[in-house]
């Protein structure tokens, strides 16, 4: 297997002015409420547009998710609407300003910690940790462009 170090995830065109890496619609196929952690469920979903497969942990105590739910999920490099990158330290004004988070119901901040080429041609998987809650996404490498190993980003989710 080859290791891929730089990837991109499409759907929405990435520009320097856009905070988005991607945004797509997903249908929830499986929810495992029996994980070893209270209030956390493992969710499996498939995107409608690019057939991306995602498995992620979510705090379903505060944001319930069930099989059949249709979710809009986005990855963004910043919460700033103008695409300006944020500083490494926490900014408490993010809760009182108009940001990308206002458009979604569930927001998590994490880092890409692993990228892996699949055994099938053009399939790639990358892994993101959101403070211990994990996300794994797999799909065609041409549909996954713009994400870098060790990159900090945001997962944003809302119901359709």
Short description:
The protein is an all-beta fold and 160 residues long.
Report what the structure shows:
This protein has 160 residues and is mainly beta. It contains no helices and 10 strands. The chain has strands at residues 6-8, 20-32, 40-47, 53-59, 70-76, 106-117, 123-130, 133-140, 146-148, 152-159. Strands 2-3-4-8-7-6-10-5 form an 8-stranded antiparallel beta barrel. It is globular and about 40 Å long. The model is unreliable at 1-15 (pLDDT under 50).
Strand pairing plus helix content: what structural class?
mainly beta
User: How many β-strands, per DSSP?
Assistant: 10
Strand percent estimate: over 45%
- Helix fraction, binned, reads under 10%
* Computed Rg: 15 Å
Query: What is the typical, i.e. mean, pLDDT?
Result: 85
**Principal-axis shape:** globular
Reading the helices and strands in chain order gives: EEEEEEEEEE
- Oligomer state equals single chain
| Strands side by side in the biggest sheet | 2-3-4-8-7-6-10-5
- By DSSP (H or I, 4+ residues per run), the number of helices equals 0
Instruction: List low-pLDDT spans.
Output: 1-15
Q: Biggest sheet: strands, sense, closure?
A: 8 strands, antiparallel, barrel
Q: What are the defining features of this structure?
A:
mainly beta; 160 residues; two-stranded antiparallel sheet; globular; 8-stranded antiparallel β-barrel; single chain
